Amino acid sequence: MTVQGVRGLGSVFGILCGCLGLILVGGCPTSTIPNAPGTPTTPGGGGAPAGEDAGQIINVRTGFPVSELANPISVLYSFTGTADTLDGYYVPVSGPESTAGPVGSRVFIAPSLEMVTDGRFDFDPGLAGQGFYKVGIRWIVGGQEFTAESEGVIQVEGGPNPQFQQPSGTIQVVVGTDVPVRFDVGDPEGNVQWRLFYLSDTDSRDLPPDQLGTEIATGTGNLCPDCVFSTAGLAPGNYELGLAATDSGFSVATTVSRGEADQVVVIPQGAVRGPIVRVLDVATGGAPSLTFATPTTAGVELFCNETFTVEYSV
C-alpha cells in the first residue's frame, strides 16, 4: 500500500533551482528545502508497529528544477511507530506533474534510516542523472510493505558541456588582430551563464573559475555571436582561450562566492584544452614576401581566351 502526500501541514513549499539553502550534514554541503512550520522534532521510534500512515515526506511538496551539478538535496521525513526496516529511495516518474506515475524501479539510496519525526536523507542529482523523480520512504512491518512519497517532483536538468567552435586548434595572428570567438555552452535547457577568458603561458591554471586568466566577456545562454578576442597590446606568445559556465542560476563569480565552484564547468580542464592563439610580433609576423617565377619583369601579351600560368613562391 502506498501513502502519498503529507497530512496536517498547512504550508506548501516550492523552491527554484539555484536558490537552495545550504546546511552541513555529516560535514558535506547539502541543499535543503526549509522545514514546515510546526514540524515535530521528537523521536518517532518505539510504541506500536507502524501502519500505513506512519511516514511522510515533509519538504518536497511542490516540484522544482535542479541542475545535475547541484549539491545533494536534503529530503526531510517524519516517521512514527516501529518497523522492521525503514529506507529512503527515489523513483523516476513520467513528468513534472504531481500525478506523474513511475516509469522505472525504485532506487534505494538511504538504507536503515532512523525512525524519528525529523529525519533526513540526501538525494544526489548528479547520481540520479537527468529526469523527473519523486523521493520517498519505505518501511516493512512483519513482511508487509508501506511507502510514502513526495507530492512534488524533482526535475534534474542537464549541466553545461561547453565546446569551442572557432578558432579551432592553434592559429597564428599578428599582434593587434581581433580574433572572432565562437562556442556552444551545450546546456540542454539553455539556462546558463558563462565567462570567457584567456590564459598566457605564465598564468596559473589552479585559481577559482571566476579568477582564471584575463576576462574577455561574460554572458548568458549557450551562444555568443559577437565575442572577440583582441590581441592589441599583447606581448608575442601563446594565449589559450578558456570558458567557465554554470547553470546554478547565478553568474560564475556569484556561484563561486556561494561556495559552489563545483557547479562550474571549466575549459581548459584536464585533457580538454582550449584553442591556442599564437600572437606574433609585427616584425616576425608581417605581410608575406612573394617572389614570382613567371611572368618575369618582361611583359606578356595574351590573345582573346588564351591562358597564362603564374608561378610564385612565398
Order of helices and strands: EEEEEEEEEHEEEEEEEEEEHEEEE
What is the CATH topology classification name of the largest domain?
A: Immunoglobulin-like
Distance between the termini: 82 Å
- The coarse overall form would be elongated
Named CATH architecture of the largest domain: Sandwich
Q: Which percent bin holds the helix content?
A: under 10%
Q: Give a count of the beta strands, DSSP E runs of length 2 or more.
A: 23
Q: Class of the largest domain, according to the CATH hierarchy?
A: Mainly Beta
Number of helices: 2
Q: Can you summarize the main beta sheet?
A: 7 strands, mixed
Q: Which structural category fits the helices and strands? A: mainly beta
Query: What is the beta-strand fraction?
Result: 35-45%
Count of structural domains: 2
Poorly predicted spans: 1-30, 32-43
CATH homology-level superfamily of the largest domain: Immunoglobulins
Q: Average the pLDDT over all residues and give the rounded result.
A: 85
Question: How large is the radius of gyration?
Answer: 30 Å
Give an overview in words:
With 314 residues, this protein is mainly β. It folds into 2 domains: 2-157, Sandwich (Immunoglobulin-like); 163-280, Immunoglobulin-like, CATH 2.60.40.10. 3% of the residues lie in helices and 40% in strands. The chain contains 2 helices and 23 strands. The protein has helices at 125-128, 252-257, and strands at residues 2-4, 21-25, 28-32, 55-57, 64-67, 73-79, 85-92, 107-110, 119-123, 131-141, 144-149, 154-157, 163-166, 170-174, 178-184, 193-200, 214-220, 227-230, 237-246, 264-267, 276-280, 291-294, 311-313. The strands form 5 sheets. Strands 1, 5, 7, 8, 10, 11 and 12 form a 7-stranded mixed beta sheet that branches. Strands 14, 16, 17, 19, 20 and 21 form a 6-stranded mixed beta sheet that branches. It is elongated and about 110 Å long.
